[in-house]
Write a structure and sequence with these properties.
This protein is about 35% helix and about 20% strand. The protein has 4 helices and 4 strands, in the order αβαβαββα. A 4-stranded antiparallel beta sheet has the order 1-2-4-3, covered by helices on one side. A hairpin with a 4-residue loop joins strand 3 and strand 4. About 30% of the residues are buried.
Amino acid sequence: MTPCEFDAACRALVERAPFLSETSGRRSVERNDGAGGSEVSKHLLGMARDFAADEGYGLQTAEEEAERLGLWAVVHDVGSGDHLHVQGLAPGNPPRWWLAKFGGE
């Protein structure tokens, strides 16, 4: 997935699940470390976003919508309450060709 496709998928997700609010997107290395993020976090590449929802709204439903849009998605709690994490690349190191084409730090 390209960065442009990822952005479009995230916009479509919020249209389909308007109860979501974005809580995290692209992160600096320092911010990622502070959030307990992985060294290969897709937040560092601008290819991951976190969303929260008011209690009573279905994060599980939003997770299913994200997957329909081609996003890798998981609802989890990393100490600050449940949230939906989506990313446009598979977990782990991004492919070399992707880094060469779209950059990375």
